[in-house]
Amino acid sequence: MFKNYLKIAIRNLLKNKVYTAINVLGLTLGFMCCILIMLHVKDELSYDKFIPNHENLYRVALERVYPDHVSSYAIIPDSYSEVFADEINGVEESTRIFTLGNGVVIGIGDEKFEENFGAAADSNFFRVFDFEILHGAAQHAALMNPNTVVITQTAAERLFNTDIPVGKSLKVFGLDFEVSAVMSDVPENSHLKFDFLFSAVSFPDLIHENFTGFSAFTYLKINPEVGYEKIEAQIPALVSKYAAGQIERDLGVSFADYTAAGNGCRYFLQPVTSIHLHSNLESEMRPNGNSLYVYIFISIAIIILVLACINFINLATARSSDRAREVGVRKAMGSGRSQIISQFLLEALILTFGSLLLGVLLVNLALPFFNDLTEKALIIDLNSVLFALPILIGFGILVGLLAGYYPAFYISKLNTISILKGKLEVTGGGNWLRNVLVVFQFAIAIMLIAGTLIINRQINFIQSTSLGFQKENVLVLEGFGNQEKREVIQNELEKLPGVLSVATSSSLPGKGSVGVQFTKPGGGDVFTAKSFAGDDHFFQTIGIQPVEGRVFDENFNDSLSLILNRKAVKIFFQNQNPIGQKLRTKTNINGETREVEFTVIGVVDNFNFESLHTKVTPLVIFNMDNTRGFENFLSIKFASGQQVEVVKGLEAKWIELSDGSPLSYVFLDEDLAQLYRSEQVSGQVLGMFSILAIVIACIGLFGLAAYTAFLRTKEIGVRKVLGASVGSIVLLLSVDFAKLVALAFLISAPIAWFAMASWLDSFAFKIDLGISVFLIAGLVTLAIALLTVSYQAISAAIVNPVKSLKSE
Questions:
Q1: Alpha helices of 80-227 — where are they, by DSSP H?
Q2: What gap in Å lies between CA 243 and CA 335, rounded to an integer?
Q3: Span of 182-191, 360-369, 405-414, 456-465 with lowest mean pLDDT
Q4: Which residue of 155, 159, 184, 602 has the lowest C-beta tally within 10 Å?
């Protein structure tokens, strides 16, 4: 019996090659999209779950409350780590990671390497993060001694050309370190990112008491029987106990007055496995993902699967008349309804699983392109197959049953005599179902098109909006502070043809800042701002003009001068003239903390020194000659069109004057664009799946148009006999679909508006959501629908009416 069903099923599929090809194409694309999304989502959800005992590991993060705003940080004052371990019930271990920044120069013999992923860690790091040690000292001893470093296997091979460099030495920051161990690489699906772990005891500056400055990633290993909520509840008392004294010593105000003025700190715990998708704080170790995009992609996968099912149902509907006669003959010959149902469902399952196999093959072909698009390294390995196999089989059965429902259950119940007499009529309920399905398809198309357009518009807005400074034609040298001949290099670069100005700074827009607290002479309120330092040419180089007073000038001694942005002026001085005002802060001078008085000499407009995800906050800029200044970056402003010449000149001067370190530079505008790389990638992926979803929807629409044209064949013949033109008949067949598009627009536009407004809320600076983008999405969908329908409409309109009416 089954063999007979199988033969008939294959015969029917081969007999109707066009419909079979359309069905296979739609289902294959649908399965390919679902599998790719499934691989992507699986990777996003897997972050840090490879760490042993990960369910008991938490990062301590900080919500810093300022009088005028709130900021959240992934790093906290480093002295709390020991306090948490000693005084909080339920904390088994507490360890710290101090990142060393980009452009760290590592010397090995006469060679120098520039590395971006170095960090210092406590000796108990491996008791919290149980990474495998491949060679060298055991976990408990690897970071125990000063001047020791643990490196990853990849770093060992890159720097030492061997995977066992234990005992060999390297030099960083003028200090010699011995390789104590080689560890396995940190997998890409982790929020952690480092190639080198230096022992924290090697850096004396890290042992100073610090309960107020944000400096270290702090991780806790907790007792699962206690629970992280109880641990969080014990932290506020420790903040009052330890931070109060330091605040009173540094700022000269009581802790009560400090908090009464609107300042505060709320420490909270983040499960390490939730950091990648649910944490986008300041000073993250690496850019994280966004759970919203995971939900969006899961929704798209479900939608695409549903669209594929709708296609099958619509195409089956289009062939319902032919299959109804087949059913009538079968029933007249004695077939039972269960046998007919089995036959139709078997056909659907064969088609579905055939499409599934083709989809899997297409995934293998598309995966390299998809990896380039998403900037991932997804692979189909044994674990992926074991994970996906039951899901794929479930997909196949589900799609097959859903798609085969209409012909199997609806046509099989029709009256045999009515079918054989050709009196197959479509009920109102059937029309209603098909209209609902096509409205659903149009609504999805409109939402996807609108979402893609809005994401692209927001990205373009971010890239084109004025940030308050000139980011174009600025080349930035990272790690410039490591050079011994900094002044000589800067002077020589200023002489290069095409170079307009050269400046040094401790930071740059998008590169982070340092918090600083001020008081006015005589005490009083505490003012908190973010800060960095720049030299006398900094403002000229990035194109910032003063709105009051002046900026730093080499003709003045500005070592104790300050430049404020408007936001800082509003918070610090309200309506007073800021020029000449005095501000005091604690500064480290030769290892001693002293209170230093600074003078405000100028005010600049608010410019975006951080991501456009955040609002502009108070900013203070110190002069590079101050002890807070460190020449991390050198910025070169060059004339438009001179990029190639400037880079060639830079490379020549670097070879001549540098200490042998590799030349590492970026262009400021390209570097700032990386702040929104996550949105760019997600927008590209959404755009690709949107196009595929629309293609799949059009395939179903093609089937529905064919069905509609078939039902109205005789009506079209009568109209042509009575003189109707081809154009009027095409319009007749198209207007019903236009009505469905209009209904879909009314349903989808509010949903899309709400969803995209929620997404835009993650940006402090964003586009306005006007109705135009939704109208464009609706018109594009209408155009696609009419183009799809027009083929069937024209085909039906040009048929000789004699053929349409010869049976009447």
A1: 80-87, 125-128, 153-160
A2: 85
A3: 405-414
A4: 184
Own/partner pairs for 138-142, CB < 8 Å, 24+ apart? 141/180, 142/180, 142/181, 142/183
Encoded amino acid at 372, one letter: D
Among residues 500, 510, 507, the alpha carbon closest in space to that of 474 is found at 500
Query: Helix H segments across 712-800?
Result: 713-721, 726-760, 772-797
Residue type at 329 in one-letter notation: V
Question: Which tokens sit at 302?
Answer: 């479900």
Structure tokens at 592: 């001693």
Would you tell me the crossing angle of helices 337-374 and 17-45 to the nearest 10 degrees? 50
Distances in Å between the Cα of 256 and the Cα atoms of 213, 244, 409, 584 are: 19, 9, 75, 20
Q: What is the CA radius of gyration of the chain?
A: 34
3-state secondary structure of 592: strand
**How far is residue 536's CA from residue 401's CA, in Å, rounded to a whole number?**
73
For every residue of 323-346, which 3-state class applies, written as one string? HHHHHHHHHHCCCCHHHHHHHHHH
Structure tokens at 311: 């296609």
Integer Cα distance of 393 and 398 in angstroms: 8
Query: Alpha-carbon distance 726 to 179, whole Å?
Result: 83
Residue bearing tokens 């590395």? 115
| Biggest distance spanned by C-alpha atoms of the chain | 106
Tens of pLDDT, residues 289-332 = 888 888 888 888 888 878 877 777 777 666 666 666 667 777 67
The closest alpha carbon to 246, from 95, 94, 97, 77, belongs to: 77
Structure tokens at 475: 């080349």
Say if CB 223 and CB 189 are below 8 A apart: no
User: Per DSSP, what are the bridge partners of residue 182?
Assistant: 135, 151
Of 267, 269, 243, 266, nearest in space to 256 by CA? 243
Beta-carbon neighbour count of residue 444 at 10 Å? 25
Q: Which residue has the higher pLDDT, 405 or 772?
A: 772
Comparing 199-213, 424-438, 647-661, the range with the smallest average pLDDT is 424-438
> DSSP letter at 509?
T
In 101-202, beta strands by DSSP E: 104-108, 111-115, 118-121, 133-136, 148-152, 169-172, 175-183, 196-199
CA angle 305, 309, 310 (to 5 degrees): 115
134 and 183 in contact (C-beta within 8 Å)? yes
User: What is the SS3 assignment for 186?
Assistant: coil
The 10 Å CB-count burial string (b at 16+, else e) for 778-797 is bebbbebbbebbbebbbebb
Distance from C-alpha of 269 to C-alpha of 84, rounded to nearest angstrom: 12
Strand 633-638, strand 499-505: pairing: antiparallel
The C-alpha atoms of residue 417 and residue 802 are separated, in whole angstroms, by 28
Q: What is the dihedral of CA 543, 547, 552, 553, to 10 degrees?
A: 90
The whole-number pLDDT of residue 462 equals 74
CA distance 118 to 766: 35
In Å, how far are 88, 124, 173, 199, 268 from 121, measured between CA atoms? 21, 8, 16, 6, 21
In sequence order, what are the residues at sequence separation of 6 or more whose Cβ sits closer than 8 angstroms to the Cβ of residue 598? 560, 561, 562, 582, 583, 584, 585, 622
Instruction: Give the β-pairing of 133-136 and 111-115.
Output: unpaired
- Give the pLDDT confidence of 612-669 residue by residue, as tens digits: 777 888 999 999 888 777 888 999 999 988 889 999 999 999 888 888 888 888 888 8
